[in-house]
């Protein structure tokens, strides 16, 4: 429980640090900008294609993993698998809802809106903080890893979530701090709902 509290405390600190109007002059903002410009300066067409693909896998993983478990649980009449499906879907849904709420409170502009020197691969809508792709992928990966705590589940789950998260920075649509907060939010959502895990 203390771990969960620390994660949500981190999110609260991030919210206060990134309250509207406080981004522009902070040292953290300058670091965010430098990282984003460095990433864009090292893009290649091949890497860009890979990271666009990875970014698009987010929705398929977030929906496909619990749906697959639910289908498997129904077909095999496996109650544990069905409950794990509910746990993973609920964790992802909670992270999505919290992300939506925080985005509307903080209203941090996207990197390419905040700094004209940052050129995105494509122009995403909405606001930047926290990263929704990151929060939902980490919620899915964490819940899946807690439901099936085997290395061959945990390693690919977090490799996928980490790749999706990195892709958001590489593509120029999220700052590193957006991604860090999204990861913390996703992990925390899965831990909060762990009572749903069989």
TrEMBL record:
GO function terms (MF aspect): undecaprenyl-diphosphatase activity
Compartments it resides in: Cell membrane
PANTHER family assigned to the protein according to its UniProt record, in alphabetical order: DECAPRENYLPHOSPHORYL-5-PHOSPHORIBOSE PHOSPHATASE RV3807C-RELATED (PTHR14969:SF62), SPHINGOSINE-1-PHOSPHATE PHOSPHOHYDROLASE (PTHR14969)
SUPFAM superfamilies xrefs: Acid phosphatase/Vanadium-dependent haloperoxidase
Primary location recorded for the protein, binned into one broad class: membrane
Record's protein name: Undecaprenyl-diphosphatase
This protein's UniProt keywords: Cell membrane, Hydrolase, Membrane, Signal, Transmembrane, Transmembrane helix
UniProt xrefs under InterPro entries: PAP2/HPO, PAP2/HPO_sf
Topology class, membrane: Multi-pass membrane protein
EC number(s) from the headed UniProt entry: 3.6.1.27
A Pfam family assignment: PAP2
Signal peptide span: 1-24
Species name: Mucilaginibacter pocheonensis
Transmembrane is among the record's keywords: yes
Membrane-spanning ranges: 86-106, 179-196
CDD domains on file: PAP2_like_2 (cd03392)
EC class of the enzyme, as a word: hydrolase
Phosphatidic acid phosphatase type 2/haloperoxidase domain residues: 85-194
UniProt keyword Membrane, yes or no: yes
